[in-house]
Design brief:
- The complex is a heterodimer of chains A (about 190) and B (about 90).
- Chain A is of the alpha+beta class.
- Chain A has one domain: Probable tRNA modification gtpase trme, domain 1 (Gyrase A, domain 2, 2-Layer Sandwich).
- Helices cover about 30% and strands about 35% of the residues of chain A.
- Chain A is built from five helices and eleven strands, in the order βββαβββαββααβββα.
- Chain A has a six-stranded antiparallel beta sheet.
- In chain A, helix 1 runs antiparallel to helix 2.
- Chain B is mostly beta strands.
- Chain B has a single domain, classed as Folate-binding superfamily (Folate-binding fold, 2-Layer Sandwich).
- Chain B is about 10% helix and about 35% strand.
- In chain B, the strands form two sheets. Chain B has a four-stranded antiparallel beta sheet, with no helix packed on it.
- In chain B, strand 5 and strand 6 form a beta hairpin.
- The relative contact order of chain B is 0.24.
- The chains are: A alpha+beta (about 190), B mainly beta (about 90).
- The interface between A and B is medium-sized, with 14 and 13 residues.
């Protein structure tokens, strides 16, 4: 964390598409099945992890994305302040992992967050994705995990034609190149 | 290509899933008491029928959960999808 390296450090603009890397942001993987786990997370963050599939919940600081019935991804809206995030991670780790009601793992370096916005956002993604965006694009705070150009991604629909895309660090450069190449067709 | 209705995420393209072979194969309670042939039967032998088959699938590029599916292998028609641990809705 102290030597955080951003893999892309770039932003591009094409016809009705803007792509940029939003890093560093805090990302924590939350796993748990017990009711205590949900209560503890809700109490510490003032956000209840969503139980409905393909949804998210959030406040001005954090978002929690549904990944599976017992797994969520927490990420910060703003770029991270190292001191505060370490404190939050430690606090959650002590409350959840140590008391064995769930697990907290810091995945800040594992996932890279890209922001894609503009009128052609979903047309761009559709060129390399098997997911049907018809309902997704009109549902604010919808979440999905799918493939783009055969790369695993998590998509969080922030607003109309504005989404955050999470990709594994080792695939981020490849996806970045693909997004840039494909954007030139619009 | 066909669509699969993941019991957790909803309808998704087949390319997001991986097949895990035949479902409802029960592990022998006392493996040490089995002969090599019986153990091999449990471990390796699978049905490969043309028609209705009970299979395990994983939503590998989505929620990563395993579930069961009743699929007609002759035309890829999916008759039922149900969670692990649940009984098959059709026989």
């Amino acid at each position: 964390m102290l030597n955080y390296n951003s893999p892309i450090k770039d932003q591009k603009e094409y016809s009705e598409i803007k792509i940029s890397e939003v890093e560093p942001t805090l990302k924590l993987n939350l796993r748990g099945k017990k009711r205590d786990f949900i209560t503890k997370i809700g109490k510490e963050l003032s956000i209840i992890p969503p139980s409905d599939p393909n949804t998210s919940s959030g406040n001005e600081k954090f978002n929690i994305l549904w990944l599976s019935p017992d797994e969520w991804l927490l990420y910060s809206n703003d770029k991270i302040d190292l001191k505060n995030t370490t404190l939050l991670e430690e606090k959650l780790f002590n409350e959840v992992s140590k008391s064995k009601i769930g697990s907290i793992a810091n995945v800040t370096d594992h996932w890279i967050m890209l922001n894609v916005n503009g009128k052609n956002t979903f047309d761009l993604l559709s060129t390399g994705c098997p997911f049907n965006f018809n309902n997704f694009k009109n549902s604010k705070n919808a979440v999905t995990q799918t493939l783009i150009n055969h790369i695993d991604v998590i998509l969080h629909n922030k607003d109309l034609n504005n989404l955050n895309l999470f990709v594994r660090r080792s695939f981020s450069n490849h996806l970045w190149s693909w997004l840039n190449d494909s954007s030139r067709f619009f | 290509m066909f669509l699969i209705n993941c019991p957790y995420c909803g309808e998704r393209d087949q390319s997001e899933f991986t097949a895990g072979g035949e479902a409802h194969i029960v592990r022998p309670k006392q493996p040490t008491e089995l002969s090599d042939d019986q153990w091999a039967e449990f471990l390796f032998m699978r049905k490969n029928i043309k028609g209705i088959q009970f299979e395990r699938w994983s939503h590998a590029h989505g929620c990563r959960k395993w579930f069961n599916m009743v699929r007609d292998t002759s035309n890829d028609k999916i008759h039922a999808v149900y969670k692990m641990g649940e009984k098959p809705p059709i026989k």
